[in-house]
Structure formats: structure tokens, C-alpha cells
Here is the input.
Amino acid sequence: MIASLANPHRFMAFSRWAAPVLGALATALIGVGLWLGLAAPPDYQQGETVRIMFVHVPAAWTAMLAYACLGGASFFSLVFRHALADAAAKAAAPLGAAFTFAALVTGSLWGKPMWGTWWAWGDSRLVSVLVLFLLFIGYMALRASIDDEAKAARAGEILALVGLINLPIIKFSVDWWNTLHQGESIFRAGGPTLATVYLVPLAITGAGYSVAFGALWLARTRAEIWRRRALSLALQAAL
Amino acid sequence: MLDLAAVGGKYAAFVWPAYGVSAVVFAWMIIDTLARGRRARREVERLEAATRTPPRP
Here is the structure.
């Protein structure tokens, strides 16, 4: 499947219908998930602030997914010198930055009433997610700062691959260090500890965010391929 | 039936902005992505049309 889509013509034909289909699926999943989340009873400890979880946690999951995709695409671009992989890597970065920004802001809006503070510099989970945001921004800034697109791609790929080390740090930060952030309650040995009434809407919204990222990633990669085609035509016309 | 006016309770000032920020972020991602695609595609079409048009004598 992936090998087949490595062909730009096949990718364009596939993404032409897949992006809107995935977009519609994401809209339905997010709509249902948020509806169930807003209809769920308030948590006995967190009260009504538990509803922030339904937009905060999916944004954080998707931010990490976006970085994994950025790292994976960068690996394929660096090793196989594949132009489509580079376009996909470039397309994933702004989406990842946006999801990370949403995770940071919604987390802060949850932290103020629950922890009594908007931000804690000593918290490893918060700081490692901020580092993730800076990695996305740094990747985009690095590429934008180099005129030669091939050199910009190589520099970006190396930065993206080095930054992959941050993903396990984010995941295990709540286990390795003392943190204000609550420990792992979903992807843990022994199963989730979250009540079903919250777990179901969270899982549906999380799936919706991931599918939305997929749709936007496809659409943005298409846009990048069009941009490169325009650049190539402009160069041919100038010769 | 879901009563949206009651959602958030005394924490509504934190809950609704979280949903608002999420909506704005999604809106930006969708609009920016579609605008980039449209702009680049129009540029390709313009350049292809220009290369097809024979130069005037």
C-alpha cells in the first residue's frame, strides 16, 4: 500500500478522494465523541473541568502521532531520497505544531482550576510537550531559512530524526519523574483506569482527531506537490 | 437531552475557551490547507496555459 502510494501520480489519485472521505469521517467521529463527552456526568473530583479532557488529550495524542509521521517521512526521505516523503514530512510539521499548540493551551486551561497554576516549569510532561512544539517550529524555521530546497530538506530531516527521542520522553515522563500531571490512565499495563463513561467519548474523539490529521496531511501533501510542480514549470518557462 | 448552557458550571470560563481554542485551531488548519492547495493548483494551471499559448508574432 505505502510502496504503491510512493508513486506521486498514484498518490494524487488516491488522496483526491481519500482526503474528503477521511475529513467527513473525522467530522462524524469528533461530533459524536464531543457530544457524548459533553453529555457525560461531571467527574467526582474534577467536576465539569473533566470535559476539557475530550479536546486536550486527543490533541496531545495527535501531536505525537504527527511527530511520528514527520520522523517516519523524514527517514524515508533521507534514506531513499524520495521527493514524496519529503513533501509529506514538510506537510506534517504545521499540523503537528497546531495540534501541540491546542494541547498546551487546553492543558493550561485545565491546570489553572485544578492545579492552581497555568504552567509549571518543573513539570516534565508539560516541558517535554513544549519541546515538541519547539521542534515543530524549529523544523519549519530551519527549512524556511535555507533557500536551496534540497539542503533545507536534508537539514530538516536530521532535526526531525534527532527530535524523535522526545516522543518516549513525553510518554514516560509521568513515570520517570515527579510531575503535577496525572500518571498514565489509558495506555497502561493492566488496562485503562478511566471510567467507561469517559473512556468511550475520549476514544471516539481521539480516533476522530487522528483521522482528521490523516485527511489534512493528505490534503497538505497534495498542496506541496502542486507547489513543487508550479515551481518546476516556472523554472522551465524561465529557461 | 444535553443542556449546553449548563455545561461547564462554575468552570465554564475554562471549559468553553478550551473548546473555542480547539475550534479555532481546526478552522486554521482546514482553511490554510485548502487555500494552499487552491493557490498552488491555480499557479500550475496558469503556467501550463502560458506554456501552451504560442507566442504572438
User: Anything to note?
Assistant: Chain A touches chain B at residues 34-35, 38-39, 42, 47-49, 51-52, 55-56, 59, 94-95, 98-99, 101-102, 105-106, 109-110, 112-113, 212, 216, 219-220, 222-224, 226-227, 229-230, 233-234, 236-237 (CB under 8 Å). Chain A has one domain: 21-36+52-180+188-228.
